[in-house]
TrEMBL record:
Segments forming a coiled coil: none
Pfam families: Acetyltransf_6 (PF13480)
InterPro entries: Acyl_CoA_acyltransferase (IPR016181), BioF2-like_GNAT_dom (IPR038740)
Protein name in the entry: BioF2-like acetyltransferase domain-containing protein
Species lineage: Bacteria, Pseudomonadati, Pseudomonadota, Alphaproteobacteria, Hyphomicrobiales
SUPFAM superfamilies reported in the protein's UniProt record: Acyl-CoA N-acyltransferases (Nat) (SSF55729)
Ranges of residues in domain BioF2-like acetyltransferase: 177-319
Domain of life of the native organism: Bacteria
Amino acid sequence: MPAASDDHDLRIACEKSFDFSGPDYARLFEAAATGAFAHPLWLDTFYAMLAPARGAAPVIVTGRQPNGRLAFVLPLILRRVQGIRLLEATDLGVSDYAAPVIDPAIRPALAADTTLAARIRAVLPAHDMLRLRPVRPEAVADWRIFLAAEPQPADFSAHAATLTAPYADWRRTAFSRSFQKYLDRRKKRLLKNPAVRLDRLEGPAAADAVHRLRDLRSGRFAGDPIQTPDVARFYAAIAERGSGAGFCALYRLSEGDTPIAYVFALTTGERLLYLLIGADYDNFGRHSPGLVLYDLMMEDWLARGGRIFDFTIGDEDFKADFGTAPTPMFILTGTPTVLGRAARIVFAIREKLRHMRGDMLHRTVSTKTSET
């Protein structure tokens, strides 16, 4: 496949290896403000650990200005799924938002370049289907600058709450009266024990907590990605490396030496992104530990200067209880081959069935179970 295109002063290349930990990408990431799933640590770990474990080849498209400065990076992977060559965003079940990383100063020129998509297509590996998911509304137009992909609404949304100080006042207006009463009763009952505390773990302790969180989730969710060793190792690496750097927030609610619940989250700027919870419902279920932990985390995040508490994707009922607003999500697809067009239909049917099974499971679980 062609390695690079040098037309129009912008050097475009498709790279199998790229230094996400280096200063060039750090500068681009800071300027782009793309979010946690484009963070240098996240992508560096994703390509080093998770992608090879899943048989996914890196496809990293870069655009550099004549002075060598990065104008954009498109983080992609290529893998075979049921015989289909699938080119996709860095998802693999762990990334909730997919977006290109673009220097905002260069974006207008990129959007106006009518030859850019063709030049990028010339350096891409052969593929039957392009799939970009999940994509927030603001990233749809950005992806279409570079790739021939049509957006379709996803059958799920993302949910986030915008916090304001003081927390008690915000909570009083954001939560329904009935939910406040329900939560306050359980919170009071749990916190009356002075041995109950909230901690944010760092380093090896954060990595160990990921495995404990995984064990608490075991058997609760069909197809839970963290139950696979490669995903658990990936999250543990992010927790260990990212907790001290202010990128990963690993919360633990405990009673003395006994863990009650854990939450794995990412943080960038003023936004915290909740990803995973594991709670000991066998011993603490009557306290609704997950709901109590979310409440304590929101207060802690606001006290640390945070503003957005992002519950990310998924339409679980409990998210609305916490004063969130929904954001519609999109999936972008392109099918350059006949095989890809057929696969798109099959994948769409399979995704629909998967969500139907998930909805059926969701309707059968109790309130405490829906805290995930």
